[in-house]
Amino acid sequence: MKILVxxxxxxxxxxxxxxxxxxxxxxxxxxxxxxxxxxxxPAGVEFIEGELADRRALETIFVSxxxxxxxxxxxxxxxxxxxxxESMVRPEVFFRNNTAxxxxxxxxxxxxxxxxxxxxxxAAVYGEPESIPIQEDARLVPANPYGQSKLLVEQMLAWLNRxxxxxxxxxxxxxxxxxxxxxEGVTRGEAHEPETHLIPLVLQVPLGRRDRIMIxxxxxxxxxxxxxxxxxxxxxxxxxxxxxxxKKRDTASxxxxxxxxxxxxxxxxxxxxxxxxxxxxxxxxxxxxxDPPALVGSAEKIKRELDWRPxxxxxxxxxxxxxxWHQRHPGGYQD
Length: 335
Ligand code: UFG
Known about the structure:
By secondary structure, the chain is of the alpha/beta class.
């Protein structure tokens, strides 16, 4: 397959682009390098710098590929802003970046591109679920603009499928963490600037980059009062994209991508203490606006339909993998 990977210079998109190459496919990364790193692109990946909102640029890419008799088979669409907390402060930026810009991509695909898409959606489309683990047909009421910006794309996709036959799989990620490779040749891990995600932030304490971790609220309606999330290893997540692109070519579908097991913020901190051997002081602070108390997804559908088999289903192996990477890169991508 020949695949266009938007946002392919980032943590998740770059990992999937690498896996495509490993599996013998062609990957062309399209990224504005706003957050991505060109120097970390896996060997064999072609790179084009550009803005997702630039429909003409995308059309040129699709038409040139067709003229060279090497048309694209599909698009893996990762490019997006991802911080749910930030979206509660600047919602318009999320709707512009994640929703409006995606429409440019979809228009370009309909005009002259492939008619097959795998979309990076999010568990944030569910908002505060009525029951757990969440099934794909649960109510969709996002609790923050980030989730809403992705849900709007899912809704556009459903109509484009019905009216134009655009085929897609929407993968609703739960909390992605870990590093893609083992100790040898590790290049890409989870390190954002600024960092907002729990596991890399907790690891900054044993790394000496922060004195303690703040727990955003311990008065939620959960067993220990802190928020519960379902963590998934980046390698397992990446694998699911390949399966969705290879196997699901006929229709419109939505899949949860999690492990079906929830861990509280306190449990993540406790597991990290065991793995790192560091005391990791923690302090309870205020709730972060837009945080649902518990997000745990059932992944039975993707296991059943795409034969997805996670290799790292437990929290400890996910944190262990992140810890190995962060020890090699204690300043994130700065070193
Ligand atoms: N948290 C803390 N302290 C911190 C950072 C986070 O207590 O310093 C808490 C948050 O309040 C939340 C939990 O840890 O309860 C996880 O927070 P993250 O920021 O790591 O992740 P989110 O659950 O907010 O969001 C992530 C992705 C989204 C995705 C979502 C799906 O960023 O893109 O998971 O579950 F939609």
